[in-house]
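User: For my dataset I need records formatted as: sequence, then structure tokens, nothing else. Please produce one.
Assistant:
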Amino acid sequence: MNKKLVALAVSAIAAGAASAQTANVTLYGIIDTYMASERGSAGTTGAAAANKVSTTALVSGGISGSRWGLRGSESLGGGLNAFFNLENGFNVDNGSLGQGGLLFGRRAYVGLSGGFGSIQMGRDYSPNFWVMCNSDDTFGGCLNSWSAVANMGGFFANTLRQNNQVYYKTPNMGGLTASLAWAMGEVAGTSSGSRTLGGNVEYKNGPLYVGVGFSDQKNAAASASNKQFIVGGSYNFGVAYAGLTYIENKDTAGNKTKPLIGSVTVPFGSARVGLQLAQSKSGSAKAQAFGLLGEYDFSKRTEAYAVYYQCKNKGLVCVADGNIGSPATSVAGGSWAMSNGMTASLLGLGVKHKF
């Protein structure tokens, strides 16, 4: 009997030690910066009609936002796991914090996963973000600085990354998953004010990806909503891979925009060349854009890239670079803006390193 008890005790200790060893924490990061030269042509209306503007800048986060983070998981037994992610965004050009100065502005959440799927709480990306990311992955990466999916598609406040978020994702069912997110507005006296509800359905199997997502964000009074619908897809043909994204935005005032973005990337060994074409409409107003991106991998962790991007305002404001927005130059004593008829263009050269 004593031998049996000793054997049971040793087995329990060994099982506990083995369980503890399944816990892991990883430090990771990306440092990405580029030299950008952006120009704005003379417009057809307003003070900018007789002026051309330009700016040159060293910018952080071209293909990927610069970041460092900690992520980890622990096996709790019975197929249940705990996980977390803390991710800080920063600016390489001046060393400042990104995302408005937040310590972990990119991601900060903790959750549980198992046979039921996963559920997490904290600050993280919205369901619509993942559809945009996966359908735009053909243009140098997930929603880079020049991507029209991000710059034209846009996000309402608290819909790119969501504070106070509870996020559920189903298990993978033969490539099919679904997600639902509730971001609490935390407005005193109401559970609906400023809250955001969103979800997506995604299918990813082999070379094919297809996703659909929606977002509904109430204003503080819960009397009107910002709404966004997105459908996107991508396919890897081997010799090239392509993506297509369609978005509908409607704000609380009833204004609608409808961007359509297509892209194709062709790999050449360690190099890739990508082309993106885009148009956004709001009634009769339009914005049109195209971009060329070249990348070269020195190794699995380090690459150099060059980009040329151009967008034209035909009654609808657009930007050539989501980081810069528009040339930081005054026109006729006032700030410059993309007036009707203006064309903004950008040429950039950069380096990205992962660790």
